[in-house]
Amino acid sequence: MGPATGDVAGLRSAIAAGLVEYRRDYEAYYNRCKRADSPAMRDPNPTVVLIPGLGMIAWGKNKSESRVTAEFYNCAVEVMRGAEAIDRYEAMDQQEAFDIEYWSLEEAKLRRMPPEKELDRQVIVVIGAGAGIGKATAHRLIREGAHIVCVDRNEAAAKQTAAEIMAEYGAGIGVGGSGISDCGPVIGLGCDITNRTSVAEMFRT
After folding, report:
1. What share of the chain is helix, strand, coil (3-state, %, to 5)?
2. How far apart are CA 143 and CA 117, in angstroms?
3. Is residue 127 part of a domain?
C-alpha cells in the first residue's frame, strides 16, 4: 500500500496491525535469545517505522529523544547504502545483537538514568499563556516534563512566553514560525478560543 492511493484509513489499519506483529516478534526474539541472567524484557514497541513512499516516523519519550533516534537510524541507512554500493549488507546475528542490547553495563547505565517526571511524554496546551496565571502555568508544567503549546489571543505574547521557556529549557532550538517541526519542548501560537476556525487552525498547527 503506497501513500499515492490516499487511503489514510488503510494506512492507519496497516500501522496498527504492524505494531501488534512487531511486539509479538520482539517478545519471541527476547525469549529465543535471553540468558539465565538477562534483564527483564524492555519496551517491545518500535522506535522507528518506515513507510515506503512516505518516510520515517521516529519515537522517543520526548522530542529530543525522537530526533536523536531518527538521526541514528539515518546513519544506519547510510551504512546499509554504503555496504550495498560495494557488495551486500548483512544484519548482525540476532544473538549478538541481543547480547549488546541487554549487556549488563548497558542495563546499569539505564538504571542510573533519572526517573521520568510526572508529565513526561505529555503535550499540554495552555490557553492564555501570554501573561499572568497562564504564563506561570506554562513555566510550571515545563518543569514537570511536559511539552507545552503556549496559546494566547496575543500571538506575540504567546511567542514571548515560548521564547522565555526555550531560553531556559531548550537553548539553541528555534521557536514557532516555519520551523515548528524543528522546535524543542515548546511553541507559541496565536488563537482566539471564541472562534471555531481559529481553534481548528491552532490544533492543525
Report:
1. 55, 10, 35
2. 9
3. yes
pTM of the prediction? 0.68
- My answer on whether 17 and 97 are in the same domain is yes
Alpha-carbon gap, residue 175 to 56, rounded angstroms: 23
CATH of the domain at 149: 3.40.50.720
Give domain status of residue 118, yes or no: no
3, containing H or E segment: none
Instruction: Please give the residue range of the domain that contains residue 73.
Output: 3-112
Same domain, residue pair 88 and 134: no
The per-residue pLDDT of the chain, averaged, comes to 88
Give the pLDDT confidence of 142-152 residue by residue, as tens digits.
Answer: 999 899 999 99
pLDDT in tens, 107-126: 888 888 888 888 888 999 99
- 152 DSSP β-pair partners: 190
Measured torsion, CA atoms of residues 92, 57, 77, 67, in degrees rounded to the nearest 10: -100
State the average pLDDT over residues 70-90.
Answer: 95
